[in-house]
Sequence to fold (517 residues):
Amino acid sequence: MPDMSAIVNPQQRQFNPYAENGGTILAIAGADFTVIAGDTRQSEGYSIQTRYAPKVFRLTDRAVLAVNGFAADGNMFVKKVKQRLEWYRHAHAKDMPLRAIARLIQTMLYAQRFFPYYVYNILGGIEEDGTGAVYSFDPVGSYERETCRAAGAAQSLVQPFLDNQIYFKNQTAAQGSPHPAHLPLPDVLSIVIDSFTSATERHIEVGDGLEMYIVLARGRTLPDAVAGLRPQELPSAGGEKVFVLKRDLKKD
Amino acid sequence: MDHFPTNWGRPKYDNFDTSATYPLHNRGQNQSTTSGATQHTQQPIVTGTSVLAIKFKDGIMIAADTLASYGSLARFKGVQRLHPVGDYTVVGASGDMSDFQYLQHILDGLVISEETTAQDGHTLGPAEIHEYLSQVMYARRSKMNPLWNSLLVGGVKDGQRFLAYVDLLGVTYSASTLATGYGAYIAQPLLRKAVEGRENTLTEPEARAILENALRVLFYRDARSINQYQIATITANGAEISASLKLETSWGFAEGIRGYGAQTQ
Fold:
């Protein structure tokens, strides 16, 4: 007798509308700058789909958004945020402030609460008061302002490192000299580059290339140590400045 | 949810408007949305296997065999899986062939409406075709009713080469070598080794040889492939899709494999 159970109860494989496309993103806020970075590998399972798929996008002259998770949702989400920012520009003849973009992203994510964008967002840039800021989101819109945040495949490798190096967790300051409240830009860039080279060593979904966006507050210039790295300056209307620094990561 | 307001506030399964509250023509078309669930594509039926594509000096080359399988049955052996769109683009499809035929219909309609309705002197290039396709694919996956395909879109317009991928989830990416299905595992490493860093020097015959070799390896290892294929070449001079060609294969080595050739012990 053949097994009839397969005919009586046909096995239905449910269509899964999500995929996980790897990669890691990271943002660190300084006193008057913010660095937003992401690797450029896109993968599914053990296959590298491409070695160059950007995950970090400039939104305005002072806001940069990094997206990580399901790539199709990520690209669609960035597209819709950019569209809403363009509408805002047409309505108000100015760019939306960073904290308003953060709240916009929350409402846009929560609007999809019951079919979420499977995406972790990190928004970085300069606030209206000229301070560097990082906002991090979960896929359904919970968000908070922070000094630094890592998300994605290697979050569990990078975040503890940042807790130690940025928040000085488990470090004791030398007698009479407290920890600095904010690190200078060259130190932050070194920490970002080290984070990604280390994540590349230990996580298979991280590698190929690194894109770092630097947003500088109004009236600030790049320190010589950073200018020497020859970052590419993106065109802006004046005021805040946005630079891109690219680095190769290991491709294996 | 029920999108027909005339059905709202009524008891379930009450398909007949006993009190004739609304004239017939005002009622929603789908009166039975609460009683019967709609069936969506849950699996591909007649399928095509890998599509391969590479960049070369003068443009893009896309290759696919001509088999459409019905499960493990080699059902249709002469199906063209490369489809020209406009003057600059070719789309190659793996996955469900009926969904691909639907996409061909949509794309042909798109090109016609761009030519006739718009008449603005602008034409669709590979980048626009790919963006359009990815929006269609993403919209369908978001309705939980996907078009079950992995597609490669390649072309040349205004001196720019373009090559990108899109699949049933709406996932997209671009690279100088692309492969769908089994090809992503078997052909992609061969293509990367042969092409990466040589995109601007590879000649057309060299590119063709690279793809033919990858197709041959796939024919040896992919049980859903066939030794019959087509290659699309898109250059500044336009798109050209070859006739159906036969793969040269040699099976002499098989004699030495125990369990395949004659047994000597």
